[in-house]
Every structure is written in structure tokens, then in C-alpha cells.
From TrEMBL:
Keyword Transmembrane helix: yes
A cellular-component GO term for this protein: membrane
Record-given protein name: Dehydrogenase/reductase SDR family member 7B
Organism lineage: Eukaryota, Metazoa, Chordata, Craniata, Vertebrata
CDD domains registered for this protein in UniProt: 11beta-HSD1_like_SDR_c
Organism field: Gadus morhua
């Protein structure tokens, strides 16, 4: 009643607290209003998914197919893509386009093929990627380039090839699957973390530049997901790591992450962080107290350097076995 209101006024007293609470209120209201906006229509839209033969990409194919999208599934191996196609029912049979993202010419030809299929692309999901385990001193420069080619130049080339048609139609949504490692760099992941940091920066620039054409850009940054990513990772000498890391095995269910990607498309979210508590704390530490963050990372690098800490199997000259 009136007493309560008076007490509240005494506590707030028009000071900084009321300013903070007022600010939070406005923020909450803003979020609620945004949520009320009608979501983007996914049914019958043309959705291109790279890396649809495995892990998160395959789950995205399932989720977007269930939402009624017309799918174009991409990967390097026709046979593996066909496995994804066969799992989905026949109402909207997906198309497939087979190409290697790390080959610039192949990406351009693939973009033409993609556009020929449906005439346009509504949503491009740049999901394909490769990870890396190794220490910098024992890593060939060719490996640093290879990871960059697949994770950074691949999505950039595909996006740039499809962008003019989106701009002409004044409609389109580009999604990129980055990683928490696009925001913080952890030791023995140099090539991967660098490629994801570059990804974050490029797509942040793109978002600002294409807003005037009504295009949307979403950067999705998940923590560990239960997929074959660590098994498929490259080591310092370019061989396959081949190990399912404990952190990856205990990671998020890829189906949950795929649903978050669908939600990001529907809500036109600009930046989605799917981080647990530890990753969130690390992110704040990197921003607010970098010296401490660097100390913790150096300790981690030392710990992983000890032979007994190595995760076994092709760790790229040792030191890459740390799993957290
Ligand atoms: N798993 C995690 O813990 C985690 C965490 C954060 C972010 N992510 C990101 O999530 C995305 C999906 O990874 P995932 O976890 O699902 O891994 P995954 O199971 O290893 O799948 C990777 C996919 O990328 C494709 N791919 C790899 N290199 C390619 C190339 N040069 N050209 C074309 N396609 C290529 C693979 O297809 P083919 O081999 O059939 O060509 C495969 O479909 C990646 O961008 C990854 O960085 C993963």
C-alpha cells in the first residue's frame, strides 16, 4: 500500500540505485517488446547449411527441416551428406552441394550451384569447421593456414558470393557458428581460436554494413558440444588428432544448440553466447582483468605441457592433451 511505496521511495531515494533499477526496467521492457515482434518465417524459406554431414550441422538440418525449410546441405563428401538426407522425410527433400570450403574456386562454383537450385537463399548457416590441437612451436605454418582457410576464408568466400543476391532482394540472414574461442583464446588452440576471433570480427563488420539493406547477421558462439570436432581436429603436423576430448564428450547436446540456432534465426538475434558459468567468468576476466586471465592461461599451458597431462594419441608434439 501507501506505506510500502513510501518505504520503497526511502530506499531508492532518487539516488544511483533508482537509476540502476530504472535502467534495468527499461532493458527488461525493451527485451519483452523485442520478444513480441513476430518471428522470422522459416517455413518454405531456402536454408543453406554447411557441414551438414556431421555434428551440429546435421542437427541443424533436422531442426530446420522439421520447421519446414527448403534445405541445401553442404559438405565435402556426397555419401555422408546423403546419410543426412535419408534421415529426413520426403515432404521437403533437401538438395546437396558437395565442395571443399578451403578451395576458393570451389566455393564460388558452389555458390552458383546453390543459387541455381532455388534462385535465392534466405538463410545461410556457415557451420562447417575444423578444430586444432597443438603447441605453436611445433606447428607447421601450413596447419595455421589450413585451419584459417576452412574456418575463416571458407565462410567469408561463401558469404560474399551469396551476398549480392541477398542485397538485390533486400532480404537474407547470414548465420555463422563461431565459438567461445572466438572471444577468449586458450593455449594449444592457436589456429582455431584465431580463426574464430577473425570470424567474430568479420561478421560484426558485415552486420553493420548490410543493415541498410535489411539483411540480418547472427554470430552464434557455443561452448563445448558433443560432436566429433576434437576427433577431426588437426595437430601441429597436419595429422588428425583422433581423440574424443572429455570436455567435448561432456558438452552440450548438439540438438539443443541446433534449436538455439533456429531461435536465433526466428528472433533475428545478432549475437548468441551459449556459455556455461566457467566460460562466462573467463570472458569477463579477459575483459575486466586481463592480467589475471593471462596468468591462468599460462598456468594451464604449463600443466598441459607435462607429459602425464597429455590426453594421449597424436597430440601434435605433446602439450595438446589438456581438455578443459
Ligand atoms: N563441438 C564443439 O565443441 C564446438 C564448440 C563450439 C563451436 N563449434 C563449431 O561448430 C561447428 C560444427 O562443428 P561440429 O562440432 O559439428 O564438428 P564436426 O562433427 O567435426 O563437423 C564438422 C563439419 O564441417 C565439415 N567440414 C570440415 N571441413 C570442411 C571443409 N574444408 N569444407 C567443407 N566442409 C567441411 C564436415 O564435413 P565433411 O567432413 O563431411 O566435409 C562436417 O560436416 C564448427 O564451426 C565448430 O567450430 C563446435
Amino acid at each position: 500500500g501507501a506505506g510500502g511505496a513510501a518505504a520503497l521511495e526511502r530506499v531508492m531515494g532518487g539516488g544511483p540505485l533508482s537509476l540502476v533499477l530504472g535502467g534495468l526496467g527499461v532493458l527488461l521492457l525493451f527485451r519483452m517488446v523485442r520478444r513480441l515482434r513476430p518471428g522470422a518465417r522459416v517455413r518454405d524459406s531456402v536454408v543453406v547449411i554447411t557441414g551438414a554431414s556431421s555434428g551440429l550441422g546435421r542437427e541443424c538440418a533436422r531442426v530446420f527441416h522439421a520447421a519446414g525449410a527448403r534445405l541445401v546441405l553442404c559438405g565435402r563428401h556426397a555419401g555422408r551428406l546423403q546419410e543426412t538426407v535419408e534421415e529426413l522425410n520426403e515432404t521437403h527433400p533437401p538438395s546437396t552441394v558437395t565442395f571443399d570450403l578451403s578451395e576458393a574456386g570451389a566455393v564460388e562454383r558452389a555458390a552458383e550451384e546453390i543459387l541455381r537450385l532455388h534462385g535465392n537463399v534466405d538463410v545461410l548457416i556457415n557451420n562447417a569447421g575444423i578444430s586444432y590441437r597443438g603447441n605453436i612451436l611445433e606447428t607447421d605454418l601450413s596447419v595455421q593456414r589450413a585451419v584459417m582457410d576452412t574456418n575463416y576464408f571458407g565462410p567469408v568466400a561463401l558469404t560474399q558470393a551469396l551476398l549480392p543476391s541477398m542485397v538485390r532482394r533486400r532480404s537474407g540472414h547470414v548465420v555463422v557458428i563461431s565459438s567461445i574461442q572466438g572471444r577468449i583464446a586458450i593455449p594449444h588452440r592457436s589456429a582455431y581460436a584465431a580463426s574464430k576471433h577473425a570470424t567474430q570480427a568479420y561478421f560484426d563488420c558485415l552486420r553493420a554494413e548490410v543493415e541498410r539493406y535489411g539483411l540480418e547477421v547472427s554470430v552464434v558462439s557455443p561452448g563445448y558440444i558433443r560432436t566429433n570436432l576434437s576427433r577431426n581436429a588437426l595437430t601441429g603436423d597436419g595429422s588428425q588428432y583422433g581423440v574424443l576430448d572429455r570436455t567435448t564428450a561432456m558438452g552440450r547436446d548438439p540438438a539443443d544448440v541446433a534449436r538455439a540456432v533456429l531461435e536465433a534465426v526466428r528472433r533475428r538475434s545478432k549475437d548468441v553466447l551459449l556459455a556455461g558459468l566457467l566460460a562466462t567468468v573467463a570472458l569477463y576476466l579477459r575483459t575486466l582483468c586481463p592480467a589475471l586471465f593471462f596468468k591462468v592461461m599460462a598456468m594451464r599451458a604449463r600443466k598441459e605441457q607435462r607429459p602425464e597431462a597429455a590426453g594421449g594419441g597424436g597430440a601434435g608434439g605433446g602439450g595438446a592433451g589438456g581438455e578443459t
